[in-house]
Amino acid sequence: MSPLARIPFTRAEQDPTGSCVRDGERDLGNARFAADVRRLAQRLGRVGVAPGDTVAVMLPNCAEIVTTMFAAWYRGSALTPVNAALTDDEARYQLQDSAAAVLVGDERARALAASVGIAWLDAASIHADEADGTATEPDDGPVATAGDFALIIYTSGTTGRPKGVLLDHANLDAMSGSLVEHFSLTAADTSLLVLPLFHANGLIAGTLAPLRAGGDVVVAPRFSPDTFWDLVESHRPTYFSAVPTIYAVLDARTEREVDTSSLRFLVCGAAPMPAELIVRFEERFGVPVVEGYGLSESSVASNINPLDGPRKPGTVGIALPGQEVAVVSPSGEQLPPGTRGEVVIRGANVMRGYLGRPEETAKVVRDGWLHTGDVGTIDEDGYLSIVDRIKDLIIRGGENIYPKEIEECLYAHPAVLEAAVVGRPDPVLGEVPVAYVAPRPGRVVTAEELRAHCTAHLARYKVPEDFEVRTALPKNSVGKLVKGLLREPSRV
């Protein structure tokens, strides 16, 4: 049996009245949460969900997503969370590709379920007040095993159709245990869920790891810089995980003094965070920011800067317990410290594969190593620095240019909030870099200023051919900049 599937029930036995999941005004204690998980699992069974099936959930961030995850595991089924911001066609694609047997959600979900011929369960009834005292049917408890699929997480799909990443209970057991060990998580910890729960980060790092450690989870509504610090001050979390854009916005938009005394640490992931922003945020708010790195294919995290040890802003830290991270040449040979190459990952956290795509799985998982497609270097102390994506490399007249280096330069300009550099075809040079910038609130910056700034800090061939200043840059639903849209201006 999977120990993860038993978490709600182990907690209820050990501390029935302890807090488990908080969501707005709701505080679901351990006993209540476990009872609601069991009740939902039995409802899933009544609509035909069996071990090995897939349960889909489509809701904005709320406690019901967490309950549905554990209820699916109770049945020995996998969960696929569907981003509620998807169009109907995009949602139907995920439901059909994952072969979902049921969709848990609202009235919109009811219509989508009907359109693809699957069952629907009303999410509004999962934690209904009257359910608290309702007896559950006798059963034998959770049936999921270590080898059963636990999550099917769909990639962001910035190019082509999204792929379903298959993570089993053994993957999640290794990953959550690694995070508990690295951050020394205990029952005293509270995670504030900032990132969306249709993503592996929110479900595993933000939810599973603290619940496994005996701590609790606060589900935050959609991120707003105007109300975010109010949530921190009222719920007193010990950590949260966010993307660089959120940290940049909080730094730019926070005008009052805030109480951060409950926070032990903050995590940044999903995209590289400028070292200058990390240092500035730490100094201003008095909380260590540890940058990490990982993929859905590696169950979310593989490297994170340590809390008890040197933190190196600009790196994504050391390999997490139980994982090996290396940098290899195109022929697969491991490279010495300081040498650029492709980042590869090995460990029990590496995915089982892409759902229904054996050829694509074989391309990225070779000899037990997950090939990430990221370019990086590892220093003498084992700290990984991500240089860029292999596919984002710009070759200008034979010179290799990594956009991240130019972006770091742009972020050092005091008026820049967001920056993205992409390649543009050129009839003479083959490709040239082009920069897109969004200014900080209340600041104005011109293309001429940005060109002068880059010229003063970069080799001439790295200076972008053009600079475009916009009010905001395109992002996906996780808050990560989407460069693909910048490469196709007609779509922006």
From TrEMBL:
* GO-annotated biological processes: fatty acid metabolic process
Region ranges (Disordered): 1-23
Tell me which UniProt keywords the record has, alphabetically: Ligase
Tell me which residues make up the AMP-dependent synthetase/ligase domain: 11-355
Superkingdom field: Bacteria
UniProt GO MF annotations: medium-chain fatty acid-CoA ligase activity
**Where is the AMP-binding enzyme C-terminal domain positioned along the sequence?**
405-480
A Pfam family (short name) is AMP-binding_C
Q: Of which family is this protein a member?
A: Belongs to the ATP-dependent AMP-binding enzyme family.
Protein name per UniProt: Acyl-CoA synthetase (AMP-forming)/AMP-acid ligase II
Phylogenetic classification of the source organism: Bacteria, Bacillati, Actinomycetota, Actinomycetes, Propionibacteriales
